């Protein structure tokens, strides 16, 4: 089966869900990964499809018209004071649009609270046929593979899994060999990008790069192939926000180059299964 690619919404966050879908079709993607859970971050557009019925209908029509599929939605964060039921409208939207997965990450230092709320999120998503994919983020409370596996092994939810981001994996300092201890069924998709090899020493610099300055695959210092070779063959969701490239090229050309650079990289680095993948 040919490798499949999605465009993550953060790559072209200025595009509404229907715009992103049509652009994904024009530039050769198989999926889109949408961001309908509004987080209120500075400059973040509000694409709450559960609230904006017109935008939901336009998105549903775009998916039907293009044949593009919805891979996942984000971001079901676990944070202090969270009532997981707030995510139910987004789960319903994702299911109606044919989505498969929901991305989650943990932003509370209270381990017991995180475990309880993450398990509840998984339970709430299950009737919709959705899986919850836990991602570690270097600026979050759960910031490495060890911490993520601790959560997953504790909750033991059959619709919970692990989502690895190339940028975050490199920044966490984890070893690629450690991926071999992860159950294969926990891998369902992968965030693909590159970034400078030098790891920033400050949180501000780390945040700026992960949100605004990621690199095309093969242009940075991350050994992406070493990660890919130790996980199963799954869809790659290209999450590659780069403000300067978008200003120079526009969203569509940036999206096209994201995909082409990834394909070029894998042509030069054919997949090798180095573990039980």
TrEMBL record:
Gene3D superfamilies recorded: Divalent-metal-dependent TIM barrel enzymes (3.20.20.150)
Keywords: Endonuclease, Hydrolase, Nuclease
Highest taxon of source: Bacteria
Coiled-coil positions: none
GO terms of molecular function: endonuclease activity
Domain Xylose isomerase-like TIM barrel: 24-247
Database matches in InterPro entries: IolE/XylAMocC-like, Xyl_isomerase-like_sf, Xyl_isomerase-like_TIM-brl
Protein name (record): AP endonuclease
Phylogenetic placement of the source organism: Bacteria, Bacillati, Bacillota, Bacilli, Bacillales
């Amino acid at each position: 089966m040919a490798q499949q690619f999605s465009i993550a919404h953060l790559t072209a966050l200025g595009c509404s869900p229907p715009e992103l879908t049509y652009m994904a079709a024009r530039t050769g993607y198989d999926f889109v990964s949408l961001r309908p859970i509004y987080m209120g971050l500075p400059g973040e557009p509000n694409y709450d499809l559960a609230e904006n019925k017109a935008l939901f209908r336009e998105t549903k029509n775009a998916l039907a018209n293009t044949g593009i599929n919805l891979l996942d939605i984000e971001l079901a964060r676990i944070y202090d004071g969270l009532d997981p039921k707030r995510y139910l409208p987004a789960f319903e939207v994702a299911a109606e649009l044919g989505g498969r997965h929901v991305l989650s990450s943990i932003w509370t230092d209270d381990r017991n609270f995180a475990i309880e709320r993450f398990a509840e999120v998984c339970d709430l998503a299950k009737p919709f046929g959705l899986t919850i994919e836990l991602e570690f983020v270097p600026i979050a409370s759960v910031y490495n593979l060890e911490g993520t596996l601790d959560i997953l092994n504790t909750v033991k939810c059959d619709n919970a899994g692990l989502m690895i981001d190339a940028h975050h994996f490199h920044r966490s300092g984890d070893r690629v060999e450690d991926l071999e201890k992860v159950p294969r069924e926990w891998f369902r998709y992968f965030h693909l990008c590159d970034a400078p090899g030098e790891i920033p020493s400050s949180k501000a610099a780390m945040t700026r790069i992960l949100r605004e300055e990621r690199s095309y695959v093969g242009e940075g210092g991350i050994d992406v192939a070493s990660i890919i070779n130790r996980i199963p063959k799954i869809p790659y969701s290209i999450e590659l926000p780069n403000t300067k490239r978008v200003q120079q090229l526009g969203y569509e050309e940036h999206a096209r180059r994201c995909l082409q650079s990834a394909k070029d990289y894998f042509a030069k680095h054919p997949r090798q299964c180095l573990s039980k993948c």
